[in-house]
Design a protein that fits this description.
Blueprint (H helix, E strand, L loop, with lengths): L2 H4 L23 E3 L6 E3 L1 E4 L17 H13 L4 E3 L8 H10 L7 E6 L14 H15 L4 E6 L8 H14 L2 E7 L3 H14 L4 E7 L11 H8 L2 E5 L34 H18 L3 H10 L4 E6 L4 H8 L8 H11 L7 H7 L17
Parallel strand pairs: 3-4, 3-10, 4-5, 5-6, 6-7, 7-8, 8-9, 9-10
Antiparallel strand pairs: 1-2
Helix pairs in contact: 2-3, 2-10, 3-4, 5-6, 8-9, 8-11
Length: about 375
Amino acid sequence: MDPKDAGRAREDPEGSEGVGTTRAETQVEYRQLGRSGLRVSALAMGTMTFGGRDVFGNVGTTDVAGARRQVDMCLDAGVNLFDTANMYSSGLSEEILGEVISGRRDRLLLSSKVRMPMGDGPNDQGLSRHHILSQVEGSLRRLGTDHLDLYHVHEWDGLTPLEETMEALDSLVRSGKVRYLGVSNYSGWQLMKALAAADAHGYQRFVSNQIYYSLESRDAEYELLPLSLDQGLGVMVWSPLAGGLLSGKYRRGQRAADGRHLTEWDEPPVRDEEKLYDTIEAVVEIAEAHGVSPAQVSLAYLLAQPGVTTLVIGARKEEQLRDNLGAADVRLAAADLARLDEVSAPALIYPHWHQARLAADRFSPADRALHRPGR
């Protein structure tokens, strides 16, 4: 493949690692979010790096001025979805984002989340009606808006009845405070149970499934990607570079000069270091062959996967964000995708290995999110 077909790369005048595209050149595409009518950019901006309060200082410490520059870069590239959460820096991320988008709220879509602890009281966490209704008001206030375009439940709550959670979320949509609902970090059975509860009572369904998915860990292919395809949920991927592990700065036998994995922050955890470095080597070789950065190759791989709607990218440094935005211009060849598929493939756990042997002739498109042709 000619390098220009893999990505229209340009040298970064501000010295980012790898080769990226300038913000003026990059324009992201828009994709339908599941079965909703909402169209979102294939790259979304994550704001966990905004603020740096408490443990989040290990992820980033972007202040208002830096956040404004990053938001400007994303808007210039066509990014229309900005993702935050009430618990990021204990609300400071939302406050910074709200200040930065003041006066231009109509240019973008806002996504936030609820579930994690926001205080020390017995009702300051979870997905009870009490916690959801109180927390959405706090998010709206900090963001300086009268509605959220997308509201995710951030994590499973096994103590609150799903009917209570889904009814509370439904009431937010009907009141106009939330336009669409999303889910994050559920297992397959938990998500299907929530959808069944919504369907049984006529509540609003989730249209978005925000999950961890990367070349470092493709666990989501076991259940979450097939389920999202089958049930019509768009997939938002968080940490698509595995916390920077797939950016090219971490190499076998070498110590990175900086990065979050040198701190107490260990999300996502690495379970198979040798497999990770095999994957990184393949990513780096493909990137060098096509004149793009390893991060852009890692992101472009995910954008080519079935069911994936948007990748939530965030960066501690502006040059990292600029490079990540350049992934919108990268198209990997079938041979490149096949090589990355092979080197990073998860083992087929039961019942998937059994189905691969005996049911492959009747697989649906959802099944093939895990059972790729090469396998």
